[in-house]
Amino acid sequence: MIEERFGQGLPFPEDCPGTDTLQGLLSHRTQRAYSKKPLDEELLQVLFACALSSPTKSDLQQADIIHVRNPEKRRAFAELIPGMPWVKEAPVFLVFCGNGRRIRQVSELHGTLFANDHLDAFFNAAVDAAMVMATFINAAEAAGLGCCPISAVRNHCSAVNRLLQLPDLVFPVAGLCVGYPEKEGHLSLRLPLDVTVHTDTFDEAGLEDQIKSYDQRRASAMPESNRYLWSEAKARQYAMPQRTDFGDYVRGKGFKLT
After folding, report:
1. pLDDT at position 214
2. Are strands 92-99 and 146-150 parallel, antiparallel or unpaired?
3. Which partner for 179 in 34, 37, 171, 212 could form a disulfide, CB atoms 3.0-4.6 Å apart?
4. What is the distance between the alpha carbons of residues 119 and 110, in angstroms, rounded to a whole number?
5. Is residue 19 classed as helix, strand or coil in its secondary structure?
6. Residue 174: φ, ψ to 5°
7. Bridge partner list, 181
8. b or e along 40-67 (b: 16 or more beta carbons within 10 Å of the residue's beta carbon)?
9. In Å, how far from its chain's centre is CA 132?
C-alpha cells in the first residue's frame, strides 16, 4: 500500500502493534459513490464522539459538527455545489465548523479579558475543526464507511451562514459526505516522502525533478482517456482566483486577522 501510494517501498517493523489501524490509514480512499444503506444513528453518535476525542489546542475545544438532516437544507447545499452530485446523494452530510465564540463566552462567564483577539484565535479554531474532521474520517473508515470532504462550502460562506444560522465567530471549514461505499473509492497517489518529510531543516533540493517524476507516475496510473499531469492541473487551478471574499467573510464574523 505504501509503494502504491508513494512510489517507494518501505520496510515495515516486525511485531508492530496496531497493524490493522495503520493499514486502514494507508488504504484511505475518497468515496463519492454511496449505497442506499442508511447509517445507524447510534453509530453516527459514536463517530461524533470519536471525532471530538481528537487533540485540541490547549484543551479549548473550538470545533463543532453540524449534521444537515433537513431535506430542504440538503437540497440547498446540493444546489450550491451542483458539480458534486454526491453532496445530494450521500446518506449523511456534515459541516465541520471552527468555533471562536465559545471561549469568549467562557471569558465573559468568569469576567476575564479576552486578550488574544488576533489571527491566532482564528487559526486555532480552524485547525481544531480540521483535526476533528480528520479523526471522524478515520473512525468512519474503520467502521466500514466512506467519506468525501467538501471544501467547496467555503465558496458559499454567506449562503452556508444563513442555512446553518451560524453566529458570530463560528465559521464553516468543510463539509463531509458520509455513507457506505457503493464501489471501491479512488486511491489518490501522493508526492514521495522525500518531498514532504524533512530532517532538521526544510529542503527543496531536486524538487522540480521529483515533481516531474510524480507527474509521470500518477499519469501512468490513470485511464488513458482521462490522463493528465498533476502539476499542470494544480497550476491551472490556482491560476484562477478562488474565495477572494473569504477574508472579508471571516472579518465579518468578528475575527481580527492581524
Report:
1. 97
2. unpaired
3. 34
4. 23
5. helix
6. -165, 155
7. 34
8. eeeebeebbebbbebebeeebebbbbbe
9. 9
C-alpha 209/C-alpha 2 separation (Å) is 21
Across the chain, which has 258 residues, the per-10-residue mean pLDDT values are 92 89 94 96 98 98 98 97 97 98 98 97 98 98 97 97 98 98 92 96 97 96 93 97 96 96
Report DSSP state, residue 7. S
pLDDT of residue 115: 96
What one-letter code names the amino acid at 10? L
Do the beta carbons of residue 130 and residue 167 sit within 8 Å?
no
138 grid coordinates: 478515520
> Which run of H or of E encompasses 47?
helix 41-51
* Phi, psi of 230, deg, nearest 5: -55, -50
What domains are there in the chain, each with its CATH number? 30-185 (3.40.109.10), 189-195+202-241 (no CATH)
Question: Residue by residue, what is the 3-state secondary structure of 121-186?
Answer: HHHHHHHHHHHHHHHHHHHHHHCCCEEEEEHHHHHHHHHHHHHHCCCCCEEEEEEEEEECECCCCE
Residue bearing cell 479579558: 113
Place of cell 464574523: 253
Query: Rounded to 10 degrees, what is the CA torsion of 67, 73, 76, 81?
Result: 10
What H or E segment, with its residue span, contains residue 65?
A: strand 63-67
DSSP summary character for residue 95: E
pLDDT of residue 15: 87
